[in-house]
Design a protein that fits this description.
Number of domains: 2
Structural class: alpha+beta
Number of strands: 8
CATH class of the largest domain: Alpha Beta
Oligomer: single chain
Order of helices and strands: HHHEEHEEEHHHEEEH
Largest sheet: 6 strands, antiparallel
Distance between the termini: 36 Å
Strand order of the largest sheet: 5-4-3-8-7-6
Length: 247
């Protein structure tokens, strides 16, 4: 369970989010950075300049910023993650309008799940953006969906070198339930007071490549709305899959 620090520092949070964006998605301009963070261009420029100074970023001849030496380890994944995020955002925003809650798109890397796109609802009490955050896969809705695609042998291999290994038999039972249902329900698993529901997003070949989920404060979760929520998620995931197939 991740909790924001008591004395959160906005500038540090902004810089870390920018570093995650550069590592996962590739280059961006000062204007792009300002829009993603919701800050002024001057603020975005200062943040990027500090990342350059510490080798987390570097500037190219077109004055765009890209991952620097410190972040280059994951550069091979930038293009696919960036395309997936760009294709998903319109569908996530439409889903917010339909469900009235915040929605996310998440991918799995080994035993971790990374949120690559978020769209927040406009409720005063809401689940905030998780974009760029990384959680243990078994603690997240999308992580459960993607782990459920694995065989027992593949699941064992994922956790063979993990720093924290969950109770595997309990996890297998949970994943079997996800496979039977075709969706995942997460009640306080990753964060107390938050309920999330998700469905897989599949490639044209049928492999699950991401999880699309809606997150809400538990006080607004109504079990009677579970099926309509799953139906809305499934429809949005299908629309995204069609877009990806065309691209």
């Amino acid at each position: 369970m991740k909790k924001p620090p008591v004395y959160a520092i906005a500038s540090v949070d902004h810089a870390l989010r920018l570093a995650a964006i550069l590592q996962l998605e590739g280059s961006l301009s000062v204007t792009d950075a300002a829009e993603r963070l919701g800050v002024a261009r001057s603020t975005a420029h200062r943040l990027l300049a500090m990342l350059v100074y510490r080798d987390f970023a570097e500037q190219d001849e077109n004055k765009r910023y890209r991952a620097g030496p410190v972040l280059e380890l994951a550069s091979h994944s930038q293009s696919s993650a960036s395309r997936l995020r760009q294709a998903a955002l319109p569908h996530l925003r439409e889903l917010v309008d339909v469900l009235g809650e915040s929605v996310n798109l998440t991918v799995r890397t080994g035993a971790t799940a990374r949120f690559i796109a978020s769209a927040e609802c406009r409720e005063a009490l809401r689940v905030g953006s998780r974009e760029g955050m990384v959680f243990p896969a078994q603690q997240t809705t999308a992580g459960l969906l993607l782990l459920a695609e694995l065989t027992d042998e593949e699941l064992d291999a994922v956790y063979a070198g993990a720093s924290v290994v969950p109770a595997m038999e309990e996890l297998r039972r949970e994943l079997a339930k996800v496979r039977r249902n075709g969706f995942a329900l997460n009640q306080g698993r990753s964060e107390r007071g938050v309920v999330a529901v998700g469905v897989p997003v599949r490639s044209s070949g049928g492999a699950a490549i991401a999880g699309m989920s809606v997150s809400m404060p538990s006080v607004r979760y109504d079990r009677r709305r579970l099926r309509p929520t799953v139906a809305a998620l499934t429809s949005a995931a299908a629309a995204l899959e069609a877009d990806l197939a065309q691209r």
